[in-house]
Structure to design on (441 residues):
């Protein structure tokens, strides 16, 4: 899988995330009295881009697996890995904490304005500013562990947990299993979590009815779990396989690139050995992906109109059919870009590839900052709000990136601190020798 394809997938995925969040108000009108043509249009787009979060998880694992730190066998492997982790922490944690602080401030102000009991902590005869500050600090710190301060920050917290698991997930290049053995081991490792989640989530009633004794066990499990616990069980059940798959795919890609550098002629020959079979595989994957999308959309319509489920719950990401759709999307992109591992060199130097790399790096800022646009334009009519959010999401991230490049503190807070550490130290200038004057005769 080439750098060009991973960058393209990242840009497409974040664009769909922004679109789904911006059009959510119209999407949830499907199946209600206010349903209109816009609701159907945005419902199709919503379900079409539903695998976006799963693709992000796969690409995050891929970025880890393809990194040269994990293929090193020399004595500096540990130091190289620690530098990689440091750069990832500087890339993710400062903007995550900054956006969490902004979201927490907005929620606190809204609670003080709308709830009198919350305002009593700060004003009135019984006000205790010291106790209120302690409660707010604890709530903010606790919210960092699950991303509760904004509706989309759970994904960043989830990534941090997956990154901490990476040393136990990664394998040495010589110990990489075959794809069939990898799929079996991934299924075996994630099966207990997935089975427990199927029992814990009430939305899985139709699947529980197909499993013996699941209908009787589900109420017992659900009675002992809270809502957040069930949510994170679902995240683990779906996120872990995609992250592990991305890690292994990245390691295989790194091995393929190394072999292509050793013998580029044989790599090019093997990539073009079976063009007919490759075209047939592409056609089959396209048909399978279209069929999977039809099943995803059909499953969504069934739960909205037949079971009366709320559209947001009926069209959620965490569904088995969405997993199939996401796997086919990854396989299709992999097949499209699997001709030659050496193609990355041309993409690295092409102007289009450089632009796409910059957009892919901006995608994290787009994901983090686009809710600010939703909050800023929330009072506008839907017809004006959606174009403004979609039109300004990328320019806002571009402006923040320019600000980060100009001021060091802004760069640290906006996730560009890794570039500061990645720069090679400036070479000391050679001392200029003083001219030696010849003695006067």
């Amino acid at each position: 899988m080439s750098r060009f394809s991973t960058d393209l997938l990242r840009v497409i995925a974040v664009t769909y995330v922004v679109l789904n969040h911006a059009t959510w108000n119209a999407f949830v009108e499907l199946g209600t009295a206010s349903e209109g043509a816009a609701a159907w249009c945005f419902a199709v787009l919503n379900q079409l881009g539903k695998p976006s979060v799963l693709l992000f998880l796969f690409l995050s694992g891929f970025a880890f697996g393809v990194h040269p730190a994990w293929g090193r066998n020399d004595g500096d492997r540990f130091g190289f890995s620690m530098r990689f982790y440091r750069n990832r922490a500087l890339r993710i944690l400062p903007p995550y904490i900054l956006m969490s602080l902004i979201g927490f401030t907005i929620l606190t102000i809204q609670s003080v304005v709308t709830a009198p009991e919350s305002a009593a902590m700060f004003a009135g005869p019984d006000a205790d500013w010291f106790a209120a500050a302690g409660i707010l600090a604890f709530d903010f710190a606790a919210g960092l562990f699950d991303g509760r301060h904004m509706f989309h920050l759970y994904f960043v917290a989830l990534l941090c947990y997956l990154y901490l698991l990476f040393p136990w997930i990664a394998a040495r290049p010589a110990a990489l299993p075959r794809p069939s053995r990898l799929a079996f081991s991934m299924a075996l490792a994630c099966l207990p979590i997935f089975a427990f989640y199927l029992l814990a989530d009430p939305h899985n009633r139709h699947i529980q009815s197909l499993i013996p004794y699941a209908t009787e066990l589900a109420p017992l499990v659900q009675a002992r779990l809270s809502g957040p616990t069930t949510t994170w069980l679902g995240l683990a059940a779906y996120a872990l396989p995609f992250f592990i798959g991305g890690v292994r795919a990245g390691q295989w890609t790194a091995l393929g690139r190394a072999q292509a550098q050793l013998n580029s002629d044989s790599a090019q020959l093997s990539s073009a050995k079976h063009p007919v079979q490759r075209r047939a595989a592409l056609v089959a994957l396209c048909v399978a992906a279209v069929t999977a999308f039809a099943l995803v959309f059909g499953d969504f319509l069934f739960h909205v109109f037949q079971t009366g489920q709320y559209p947001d719950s009926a069209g959620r990401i965490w569904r088995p059919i969405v997993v199939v759709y996401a796997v086919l999307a990854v396989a299709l992109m992999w097949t499209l870009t699997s001709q030659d591992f050496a193609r990355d060199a041309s993409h690295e130097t092409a102007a289009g590839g450089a632009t796409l790399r910059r957009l892919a790096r901006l995608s994290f800022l787009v994901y983090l900052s686009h809710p600010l646009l939703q909050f800023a334009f929330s009072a506008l009519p839907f017809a004006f709000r959606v174009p403004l959010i979609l039109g300004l999401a990328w320019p806002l991230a571009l402006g923040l990136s320019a600000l980060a490049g100009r001021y060091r503190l802004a760069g640290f807070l906006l996730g560009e601190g890794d570039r500061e550490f990645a720069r090679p130290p400036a070479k000391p200038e050679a001392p200029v020798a003083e001219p030696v004057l010849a003695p006067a005769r």
User: Anything to note?
Assistant: The CA atoms of residues 55 and 104 lie 28 Å apart. Residues 265-273, 340-347, 432-441 have pLDDT under 50 and may be disordered. The chain has 21 helices and no strands.
